Predict the 3D structure of the following.
Amino acid sequence: MEEQLSLLDLVFNASFTVQLVMGLLLLASMLSWYMIVQRFIYMRNARDEMYVFEERFWSGIDLSQLYREGNEKSADGHAILGMESIFRAGFKEFSRLAKQSGMDSEAVLEGSRRAMRVAMMREEERLERHLAFLASVGSTSPYIGLFGTVWGIMHSFRGLANATQATLATVAPGISEALVATAMGLFAAIPAVLAYNRFAAKVEVFSNRYDTFVDEFSGILNRQVYALRSRERGEG
Amino acid sequence: MNTASIYAKPVAPRIVLRPALATVLLHGLLLYVLTANLAGPERESVRVTPVPKVINARLVDISEFRPKPKPKPQAKPKPKATAKPAPKKSSPKPVAKAAPKPAPSTAKAKPAPKAAPAPKVEAAPEPRITREELAAIARAELARTVAEEAAAEVEATATAEEMAASYASLIQQTVINYWSRPPSARNGMEALLAIQLIPTGEVVSVSVLKSSGNTAFDRSAINAVEKAGSFPELKNLPSREFEKTFRRFRLLFRPEDLRY
């Protein structure tokens, strides 16, 4: 009570609507920060795993051996994400289709490519998860805060109507408390907008790399499937 | 063949703990920083302890002043009028007496002539006015002495705290002067008031932080502050000091040594 206009005082003495708005904004801020940190960790992990996998992939290792390693990894309870999961989807589809002898090489390639596309879409979806929430926090929470402020100011001016002697001091606390809502709205919105932009750019980078990988891998599969078919023709 | 998509369910290493911790930490830190910055140190509360007010009222024979025959019938009720407030309120005169503790000599000299001539001129119609007047006079005097003290202290390189302390004592004395003791007040009662001032010295709000348990006593304390209304002397205080000490302060109201 005796602190001069402490923030907590302002918050706890605010009217119900303003408190509701503040609570909402606090929730939005906490959730968006949770998601920011979570996305940050997720994307960092995805990037690291992508680098590791790319290095391994181009090291000249046998692809079926790489696939088996992945099997072991997933059997250990380790989730397979990102580029590796695209590789696994494509390779699994390829080996399944290539086993069927009547299969046209074009059809085999098309099938594995489709499987990789699907896996890539899923991966992008995973990367983009929660970003929509960040975007909507970033765009709406200033308005919510503004609503709280306008409401609080309305309230304090209505209280002024009954006072015979209107001094600044009678409205100032009300306005000050109302402005806290705007401050909170901005506090929630600014990091959310920044994070959204950053993460959206990152997702773009990821999807470009995945795209490139899909093309490169299809090239390799292309070579393999034609080699396989010509060998089959030679035998048959 | 394992065809179940790994996308059907959420990925195994769910990232929950670290973001949650980080979020809570961040908000807690922010809250702490904001409150620590704005709260400032714990305020000292100004204590108001009305001291025993000794009544040395002197019955003045009106005939001394007015030898006219006419006022004679009035002479009887008049002393009564002046004397009455004394036992009833126990503080009308002492207000002037107790107040000017810093400069007793001047104060004692002043109220006495003032109190006496008052009935001479027109005590009969409204003897109650004198009480308010006395408070106002005592207050003006107090303000002057404090201002003098402050000026003297400024010369003697007074620290801001000392100035604040002298203004606190001014507020204290002023409030005492305006306080009228409710009959149910007892020794040891304490009421803690929260007072809010603006830089012009006006009182914006008074509320009871800790009640004494006696509503009449609480109300009398609030009334005293409200009657004082404003402390224009505070305008002289540097605004930084004002914000630090007087924007919101607590007033501990604790009369001591009441006679009954």
